[in-house]
């Protein structure tokens, strides 16, 4: 039997929201997927987002986490690129 899939809700902000044209996506990933894989998938689908890969912060369920933190089923994920302005 293959690894089970998990479903996460991803809240999109700034450049990510502009690329997809929506504020939220529901995505499936294999069990054992790190949160940084969400960013990798977005960059695969929208290569212009690659400039944000190394500066994006990750949050799971309203807590900032490290990129290697594993996702769990029904997590709410946020990808937070730097905010421009000042």
UniProtKB/TrEMBL annotation:
Task: Give this protein's Gene Ontology molecular function annotations.
Answer: nucleotide binding
A biological process from GO: Mo-molybdopterin cofactor biosynthetic process
Checking CDD domains in the record gives: Ubl_MoaD
Q: Does the keyword Nucleotide-binding feature in the UniProt annotation?
A: yes
User: Which InterPro entries has this protein been placed in?
Assistant: Beta-grasp_dom_sf, MOCS2A, Mopterin_synth/thiamin_S_b, ThiS/MoaD-like
This protein's GO CC annotations: molybdopterin adenylyltransferase complex
Keywords, in A-Z order: Nucleotide-binding
Give a Pfam family name.
Answer: ThiS
UniProt keyword annotation of Nucleotide-binding present: yes
Q: Which family does it belong to?
A: Belongs to the MoaD family.
Name the PANTHER family on file: MOLYBDOPTERIN SYNTHASE SULFUR CARRIER SUBUNIT
Give the protein's recorded name.
Molybdopterin synthase sulfur carrier subunit
Biological source species = Anabaena cylindrica (strain ATCC 27899 / PCC 7122)
